[in-house]
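Show me any protein, fold above all:
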Amino acid sequence: MTTASPLGDTRAAWLLAGVEFFFALSWVVYVIFLPELLARGGIDRRYLPWIIAADQLIFALADWWMGVAVDRARAALRRIGPMLVLLSAVSALVMLLMPWLAATPLLFLLAVSVWVATSSALRAPPYVLLSRYAGRATLPRLAGIQLLGLAVASALAPYLAIVLKGVDPALPFLLSALAVAASALALVYVERRLPAAAPMSSAGGGSPAAGASGSKASWALLLLLALLLAFGQQVHSLINSAAHFKRLADPALLPWLMPVFWIGFSFGLLGVGRLVHARGPLQVLQVACPLGALALAGAALSVSLAALLLSQFIAGIFWASILCASIGLAAESGNPLHTGRHTGALMATLAVAAFSRIGLAASGGAAALGAQLLDWLPVALWCVVAVIVRRMR
């Protein structure tokens, strides 16, 4: 079977980075305008965090289902492009209609559910396409390029909240819908450049059932560790970081300071792929977890703005290392035919972590824990994972 050139691999990854960017940007636009859209339908603002939390649960279910669906299509030697285009088109259409449906709460909430579910076509499947495009060994490097789209969108979020303040939602939702629809074409382009499909089988000899229970147990442990890491990152970057900056800087500067974590994340993505390829994802994870925990501790202990900015930047670098290494482990786990469901399960785990963080804040749990405990919760979680991962082989 022929393989794509390295230049072609990189071009595909950059195209999928654009897909990731537009998907993440559409989510940012949705979150910015959701309070206004809920007000149009007379929905109480106190339900806002729970609606976003419910979105994350839908993401989790849809991500896993999409991974399974992609694996089945690959096993049958079918192209998945048409399915992804259809789901992306539905996602774009529903997003376009959201501002017009806001006055009818039931229709609006139904539209949100459909949009979230169909948007999963732009989350897990691109990573599966990359794993087919260049092989699982080079997936972390290419996934790092793709994740730059998420990093840029996350860094732009605070600025968009300022720029779009007072703007009618119809125009941003229209532009986001068009961008998502166009992203589907990039998915088709990448898939059409894939090497010809060939039947795949599990590597290794022996009985297919040999080691199955051990493999499942190891995979369950990896997902649990990913959940702890992602929940710690969510608490740090979306709850603690604002409080840290307000303690040392003028709150008016927050839109310029909050993206520092994601800038570090972007820099980390540019180099971690080669490191994972050279050392292996597990070894990178074993180093990144304790060093990342130290960076989080540095942010909690910072007594100057310069020290806090440096800690945030370094924490972003190590989160990039952790995420790329996790994607590499997901791609390498078990049967090659199950790359989709493993990647989908990892994306679902990240969504569950976001749901947990939103629930912690909305239920008053964050306030009950207090700032001191919240500061050290991400550090403790990453340290626990670092100890467990250190003993893994």
